[in-house]
Design brief:
By secondary structure, the chain is α+β, with helices and mostly antiparallel strands. The protein is built from 9 helices and 10 strands. The protein has 2 domains: 172 residues; 99 residues, 3-layer Sandwich (Rieske Iron-sulfur Protein). Strands 1-10-9-4-3-2 form a 6-stranded antiparallel beta sheet, with no helix packed on it. The chain binds FE2/S2 (inorganic) cluster. The site of FE2/S2 (inorganic) cluster has 13 residues, from loops.
């Protein structure tokens, strides 16, 4: 197992450090960024309205269709019945649904940087190759070249499987699509952070127990949100205040100051809100209740609560 892990880490490490990919990756990402500015279309492709990224959901359409066609090929061969017509239709369905799926992925990918952007480029390249193979398979089957159709479908499945592994690496190892504040552990008690006169309509950033918190006065009230943008970690205190929201300076997500709710994507998760109170001339904050275990039961670090013995 260790050998396989070493091999996999070696391969992914090479891709992540392959600066040669930066030229084409950045050029494509610039174009995508210009075509998809913050707004309704970007919201739709990002999955902003659903609270989670759209890409991992919509990939079910092409992957499910292609995989079903592949298994029909196998089942049809093994029991003497033919699933050729159904497999052909599934391949076409998979190929057609690949277009909107690619758009959601491109939108997410354009907001990444560095290693994530390089891996994403290879992920996209493998998907294009797989789509070419499935298209070739449809053509071969239409021409009566049944074996060639089976072969190109099988190679396409292997290709899209490798691509899926890279997609999993982006999500699970590099956190693309994950709420970047999910592991922030702020002190649960009231924490003194600033003098009343120091909090104005220009956002500032304070640190409580290693967690950056944005403070701003708006409509006469002091508001506090996690400063790290839930999308890709942008510093919200450097953003503008607009219609009761703070605008992330990196990709333009907009969060309501009152409760952190996403007013505009590409972010899909709200900013963690903090409760605010004034004691004398001082501002104090504490995180709003959150049932997430990693925020409440950290196992290491200064903010960890009482240790719990494993059974
Ligand atoms: S980091 Fe992307 S919108 Fe904030």
């Amino acid at each position: 197992m260790a050998t396989i892990n070493n091999l996999v880490e070696n391969v992914i490490g090479r891709v992540e450090r392959a600066e040669i990919l930066d030229g084409p990756a950045n050029a494509i990402a610039d174009v995508v960024g210009k075509l998809l500015p913050p707004g309704p279309v970007k919201n739709l492709l990002s999955g902003t309205g659903t609270g989670h990224p759209a890409h991992p959901i919509i990939v079910l359409l092409p992957l499910g269709s292609w995989a079903s066609a592949f298994f029909l090929d196998i089942a049809g061969n093994s029991d003497g019945t033919s699933g050729d017509a159904a497999a052909q239709r599934l391949l076409v369905l998979g190929n057609l649904s690949a277009l909107p799926t690619a758009m959601t992925g491109l939108s997410d990918w354009a907001d990444t940087q560095g290693a994530e952007r390089r891996v994403g480029l290879v992920h996209a390249g493998l998907n294009v190759a797989a789509l070419g193979l499935f298209t070739a398979s449809v053509a071969a089957r239409s021409a009566g070249a049944r074996r060639l159709g089976f072969l190109t479908t099988a190679i396409g499945m292997a290709t899209v499987g490798a691509s899926g592994w890279l997609g999993g690496h982006l999500a699970y190892a590099r956190g693309v699509g994950t709420d970047t504040t999910a592991f922030e552990v702020a002190p649960s008690d009231w924490t003194d952070v600033a003098d009343v006169d120091d909090v104005t309509e220009k956002p500032v950033c304070v640190d409580i127990g290693g967690v950056a918190v944005l403070l701003v006065r708006h409509a006469g009230e002091v508001r506090a949100l996690s400063d790290r943008c839930s999308h890709r970690g942008g510093p919200l205190h450097e953003g503008e205040i607009e219609n009761g929201c703070v605008v992330c300076p990196w990709h333009g997500s907009r969060f309501r100051l009152t409760d952190g709710v996403v007013d505009r994507g590409p972010a899909t998760r709200p900013q963690r809100a903090f409760e605010v109170r004034t004691v004398g001339s001082r501002i104090q904050v504490r995180p709003a209740p959150d049932p997430g275990s990693l925020r409440n039961e950290p196992v290491t670090g200064a903010a960890a609560g009482p240790s719990t013995a494993l059974p």
